[in-house]
Structures are given as C-alpha cells and as structure tokens.
Amino acid sequence: MSYQVLARKLRPADFSELVGQDHVVRALCHGLDHDRLHHAYLFTGTRGVGKTTIARILAKSLNCEHGVSSKPCGECSVCEEIRENRFVDLIEVDAASRTRVDDTRELLDNAQYLPSRGRYKVYLIDEVHMLSASSFNALLKTLEEPPEHVKFLLATTDPKKVPVTVLSRCLQFQLKNISDDNIVAHLAGVLAAEDVPAERGALEIIAQAAGGSMRDALSITDQAVAFGAGSLKQDDLVDMLGLVGRAEVDGLLKCLAAGDAAGLLEASADLAERGADFNALLGDLVRAFHELAVDHAVDKRATAQFDEQAVQLFYQIALIGYRDMQIVPDPKSGFEMTLLRMLAFAPDEDSAGRIPVAVAQPAQADGTSGEPGPAQAQMPAPESSVRFPDGTAWHEAVGSLEISGVARMLAEHSVLVGCSTETVELQLDVAHDTLLDEPQQQAIERALCEQMGASVKLKITVGTIQEESPAARREREAAERQRNAEAILESDQTVQSLLNEFGGRLGAVKPLDDAAR
Predict the structure, then answer these.
(1) pTM
(2) Which of 215, 332, 362, 388 could make an SS bond with 48 (beta carbons 3.0 to 4.6 A apart)?
(3) How do beta strands 90-94 and 40-44 pair?
C-alpha cells in the first residue's frame, strides 16, 4: 500500500478528534443532539484549521444510519462512504474552479430531488467567496426557500467577500487559529503513535512555522521526518526551514547594544551564506524586543543592555522594517538597512552607536587643539558642594548607578542636598515632579545600596533647585561641544574653500566624541 501523508491519514473522523475548535464543536453537538438544525452553515477561518473537516463530520452526523447524532458510528455504510469521499448525497464543490452561474444553476437544479441514500442531501461548497455575483444570486434563491431534505455547508477563508444577503441566511462559525501549545501536544501524540522520535524544540519550531494551521503542521512534519531520516531534531528543522536560532538573534542584539555596525554586517553576510530567511529573522527580532519590553515592565535586571526608550524605538524600527520587506530590492539589504537605522537613531543615553553626518575634532576656534576658546565658553550653573562620604559628586555617581528608564531620568533631574552613611537626600526639580513615584525611588535606593556597599535610605523632595543637575550638566556640555564643532568647521580654510567652490553649505554637524556614542 502506498504511503499516505499524515494530513490525510490523521483527518479527524468525529468531533472528539478535532483540535482547538471547542467552541464550534460544542455548538454543533448541542444542535445535533437536540434536533436544532439549521439549513445552512458557514465555516470561516484561515487555511488548515478544520473547515472542510468539520463540514464532513457534520454530513456524517446528519446521515449516519443509526440516526442524527453528534457521535456518528463511523462503521455503517454511510459513514464509510463519506470517509472515502464516495457518498452520493454529499456533493462537494470547489467554488474556485466552478465560478460560473451556469455551474451553480446546474448544481442547484438537483436540490429539489430527494436524497438517494441518506437522510439529507448535503452541499459542501469550499471557498464559497470565489463564486461570481450571478452565482451568489442563484444560490441565494435556494437559501431563501430551501427544501427540508437539503443542508448547505459553506466554507471560506475570506468571509468579507461573501454578500451579506448570503451571510444573513447562514449559521456562522469562526474557526480559530490553533495555538502553538495545542499543535505541539497533538504532534507529540501523533509521532509517539507513529513511533517517530522527536525533540520538543523541533515540535515548537514546526508549530511556529505552521502559523496556526494543523494541516501545515502535519505537512511540515512529513517533510521533516523524511529530512531527518525517520526522526525529528531541532537542528534539522532549523536547516530545513532556513531558520536561525536564539544564539544568532542574541548575537545581533549584542552588536546593536555595542553600536558595532561592522559586526552586524558580518553577521548578516554569514546568515545570507546559510540561506537564512531574513523576513522571518526580522520577525524574531520583533519578538525579542517585545520580550525585553515585558522584562522592563516587570523590572528584570536582564535588560540592562538596552534601556526602555531604546527597546521601544528598536521595536518600532524592526516592525516598520518587517512591513517594508515586501518592497525592498532584496531581503538582505532590507534587513541590513533596518539594523543600521537602529544604530543611526539610537537614543543618546543608550550604548548603541550613532552615525554622524559630519564630525570635528575637539579644538579651539582658531584651529589649534585644546579647550574651546572664549567665544564658545559658557559659565556653568553652580554645582552642589555636597558630596558622598567618599568625595564623589552626584553627577559622577549617577553615571555609575545600575538604573535605567524613568528611574535614571528621576536621578538625573535631581541634585544631592544631603548625604550620610545611613541617608541620601535628593531634591527633584519641580519642573519634573511627574517623574517621582515609589517604584522609581525604590529602584534608585537599591542602586545606591549596591554602589555604597551599605544599607541606605533615600529621601526625595520636590522644589526649585539652584544647582546644576546631572541632566542640565549633560545638556550644557553637549551644547558646548556642538558650538565648538560648528566653529571649527566654519573657521577651517579647507572646508570653506570647498563650500565656496561647489556652492555648498554646512548641514548637520556632529562632534566626533558624540558620533562615537
């Protein structure tokens, strides 16, 4: 006997064998067992979730020789004929290949005649949305005044294309995508019965690749068993489907955190040689940033490589890149541009690199190296004289605290007003009082305890501060570097001659030390 693929061999024979569609099974079983039958049923859902399978089981339940029931015997001649697709009163139609109105009229002309073998004449129309407008009108006539011995079972992947006049005359059931857990559990049972050894990781990869379709999952399993010579291994699935593992995704995240553009491009080239699916890889990156965002939400320390702002930004960039993969010249270039865009727009506070438009070495306005000249100098705001017991200034301490996100913003907009071996007192600028809440204060307190190696209590008050906060200091220093860089280029004779010769002008200028961030 020739080999039968799993998707056909394991097609459910009754409602109890269906996976992941309990809401539909419950309603149909109740209707069958209590004689509450409708003349037309519409099953909608994506491919491979059980639409036609449910329709065939329903046809079997309606015509079983032992009576209408949600549990057909499966052994009578009618049940066997339906299982073997040779029951004369079950008329299956593929609407995609029979769209003409003449085909529909010819089909429905026989609806008035009594069934030959069964209790009901059942019309199973698959992909019903493919019918033409004239065909729908012909079908509607019969749906409005159906013979008592006729049942219509309609299936479609696109219910929006079915006219509302038809929808309103059908009992509608929306089949769900089957969850990964249900697919994994079902495949594990199937492979155990088939005596095929399988790794859990391999089953999880199949479930994810199937996208909620049990039929696709069984088809991939067939292919994987052949690829693995009778067994299912995770590494074989990765090679067969052109996937990448978590290690590769983590490697990309590390390069992003380090601002390593060369490392990202090298990794991309290596993945291209392995035939990786860059579209799927971008999807993996989107999932990875989602996981990091969830970790931030529950305050896990494992997310220290990216702060909250960077995670949110990178997620959005990856999502846009994933959407644009359909229009890029080739997947590899689209993938690389998405990664480079993350580096280019990384937040200043993050460690990821930034791509400069123009750079300038720190130097004086006269072109010599050294501190900025008087034209670029700006008097800083007074700094607090309060120090930690070890003499560290507050702006220096903030830079080394293990905090991120809102907690870091809270610390950077505060100044140190008191410190002892037991208590640290900060004053928050009143303009940023919305940053103050208990969880963020506790995060700073924990970081201070770790840094000072002792248990200290943190007290934060709100008021108008006269000293320069770490955030204000950072902005002032950045502004000074910017003015200095612009002055260097404006006074550089070579740059000016090039601008004059080509009629150019200076655009965005980025100081060299900022460009390295």
Answers:
(1) 0.56
(2) 215
(3) unpaired
